[in-house]
Amino acid sequence: MPINIPDQLPAAGTLRKENIFVMTQSRAMSQNIRPLKVLLLNLMPKKIETETQFLRLLSNSPLQIDVELLRIDNRPSKNTPTEHLNTFYRQFEMIQDKNYDGLIITGAPLGLVQFEDVIYWDHLQTIMSWARQHVTSTLFVCWAAQAALKLFYDLPKRTRKVKLSGVYQHRTHHLCHPLLRGFDDYFLAPHSRFADFSTEYLAEHTDLDILASSEDAGVYLAATKDKRNVFVTGHPEYDALTLHNEYVRDVGEGMEPMIPVNYYPDNDPNQPPRASWRSHGHLLFSNWLNYCVYQQTPYDLNHFSEANFTKDDDSQD
């Protein structure tokens, strides 16, 4: 089944060219089924690029999904046309009385900024706390994962001396966990962050199930026992050229960045990079939608209650 997005959203054309089944809102209204309601809080500057990346991953599911786009505030954007934001994005105040099956909070280029210095920090905390009473499962990506660990576990910001950038090998743990269904023992995934997610640190200071980790990149995937909060410290949504574009940008700004690890053939930035993580990214999102959202959410979202969720119920398939 397809994702259901606004008819004129730029991502729709891109996804159709990739032979991804996109259903417009006008067609979806004629189908008498209960689609999943997924909210995407997009914190990235280039919102059109980011929304396309996440919609691509959400599309790989037999479920029909209604996607709503959310922005953190109404400040002007340097990278996204105002008309696009006004047309396709909602403010939190417009949706705060609704319930959702899933919420995705993207990363943000705030790796060297202290939480209390983030202009929308208080508002973001409000949204993450709201999700506990209004969302079945929330997926926190990269910087959002660090922000959620601060809010839910009071973990201080841990920053690496050198930015982690590249494609790293990860080992899966707890292969019977629903989020890891179909995973290989080892898989590749991209990272681009200053945040430090040490396996030992998270194991000592949280009760999270640590599901995948890397010797070089630390924890990659973790989840609460009830699967209502899922933390992804990397970027499975990235396109093949995203790390390249970030590298070129940093070089242009005189930052002298390290060449992204295990990304360019022969470690040569002049050669076209190759995406080696697509299958993993699609499988991760498919598992999240099925086992953390669809299998857990109430049929009638008006009857949403935290009591619906049990910590160790992995029996639903």
UniProtKB/TrEMBL annotation:
Q: Which residues form the active site?
A: 142 (acyl-thioester intermediate), 235 (proton acceptor), 237
Q: Where is this site: Important for substrate specificity?
A: 192
Residues involved in substrate binding: 163, 192, 249
**Reaction(s) this enzyme catalyzes, per UniProt:** L-homoserine + succinyl-CoA = O-succinyl-L-homoserine + CoA
Subcellular localization, as worded in the UniProt entry: Cytoplasm
Q: Which InterPro entries match?
A: Class_I_gatase-like, HST_MetA, MetA_family
Q: In which pathway does it act?
A: Amino-acid biosynthesis; L-methionine biosynthesis via de novo pathway; O-succinyl-L-homoserine from L-homoserine: step 1/1
Query: Which keywords are on file for this protein?
Result: Acyltransferase, Amino-acid biosynthesis, Cytoplasm, Methionine biosynthesis, Transferase
Kindly give the Pfam families that the UniProt entry links to this protein: HTS
- UniProt record similarity statement: Belongs to the MetA family.
What this chain does, per the entry, is described as: Transfers a succinyl group from succinyl-CoA to L-homoserine, forming succinyl-L-homoserine.
The protein here is known as Homoserine O-succinyltransferase
Species source reads Vibrio stylophorae
